[in-house]
Amino acid sequence: SQQGEEDPQALSIQEGENATMNCSYKTSINNLQWYRQNSGRGLVHLILIRSNEREKHSGRLRVTLDTSKKSSSLLITASRAADTASYFCATEGGTASKLTFGTGTRLQVTL
Amino acid sequence: EPEVTQTPSHQVTQMGQEVILRCVPISNHLYFYWYRQILGQKVEFLVSFYNNEISEKSEIFDDQFSVERPDGSNFTLKIRSTKLEDSAMYFCASSVIGSMNTEAFFGQGTRLTVV
């Protein structure tokens, strides 16, 4: 698989439920970042976790990083309809600030 | 809140024509980037730019592409002779510094359609 593969590709949940998205990567990294993209719009930075960190929280977001397994997960708790978007992981490694994006997870939150 | 702005939001051009995509990075940022996203595919790195020079470029960024910072605020991507496969969303980004663990801020993108 390529650097930054995410699963599932698509996820449909009901409002109030938690959403978990996973990302795997292949090479060593400096950090891993999660971005959100509403349909046809720009990328919004959500959270950055450094390679020496294992878990990070920001509001309803919880990100974990397991460098031994080269994987990360993004948990959105108590989801809302407004969370409907595509979510991408992006890794930064080696060259400063060049991001390698994953394939993305399309999240649909229904009322 | 400061943001990266891109113009135009949508550009339609004929194959073989030159296009210039414009970006205004956040004012105190020093590193600038272009990424592109072909419909339904991954966001791909094109080029990074610092101190009026290209820092790094990908295989996609061939001789048809060039970047410029013509003045103190704009950052442009030029495609000299567009091809159908250049149709994509082009994102500009900027960051304060280019070192590790620095957040990059993205613009809303320019959708380029080559016909």
What are the main properties of this structure?
heterodimer, A: 111 residues, mainly beta, six-stranded mixed β-sheet, five-stranded antiparallel β-sheet, 11 strands, 0% helix, 56% strand, globular, B: 115 residues, seven-stranded mixed β-sheet, 50% strand
In short:
Chain A has 111 residues and is mainly beta. In chain A, 0% of the residues lie in helices and 56% in strands.
Q: What this model shows, in words?
A:
The complex is a heterodimer of chains A (111) and B (115). Chain A has 111 residues and is mainly β. Chain A is 0% helix and 56% strand. Chain A has strands at residues 5-7, 10-14, 19-24, 31-37, 43-50, 55-58, 61-66, 71-76, 85-92, 99-101, 105-110. In chain A, a hairpin with a 4-residue loop joins strand 7 (61-66) and strand 8 (71-76). Chain A starts with a strand and ends with a strand. In chain B, strands 2, 4, 5, 6, 9, 10 and 11 form a seven-stranded mixed beta sheet that branches. In chain B, strands 1-3-8-7 form a four-stranded antiparallel beta sheet, with no helix packed on it. Chain B has strands spanning 5-7, 10-13, 19-24, 31-37, 43-50, 53-57, 65-68, 75-79, 88-95, 105-106, 110-114. In chain B, strand 7 and strand 8 (75-79) form a beta hairpin. Chain B has 115 residues and is mainly beta. Helix content of chain B is 0%, strand content 50%. Chain B starts with a strand and ends with a strand. The chains are: A mainly beta (111), B mainly beta (115).
Largest sheet of chain B: 7 strands, mixed
Radius of gyration of chain A (CA) equals 13 Å
The overall strand count of chain B is 11
How would you state the average pLDDT of chain A, rounded? Answer: 91
Structural class computed from helices and strand pairing of chain A: mainly beta
What is the molecular shape of chain B?
globular
Oligomer state of the chains in this structure: heterodimer
First-to-last CA distance of chain A? 34 Å
Shape of chain A: globular
Distance between the termini of chain B: 36 Å
Number of helices of chain B: 0
**Largest β sheet strand count, sense and barrel closure of chain A:** 6 strands, mixed
Overall pLDDT of chain B: 92
Percent helix of chain B, as a range, is under 10%
Relative strand content of chain A: over 45%
Radius of gyration of chain B: 13 Å
The ordered H/E elements of chain A are EEEEEEEEEEE
Number of strands of chain A: 11
* Largest interface, Cβ cutoff 8 Å: A-B, 26 and 27 residues
Considering DSSP H and I runs of 4 or more, what fraction of the residues of chain A is helical?
under 10%
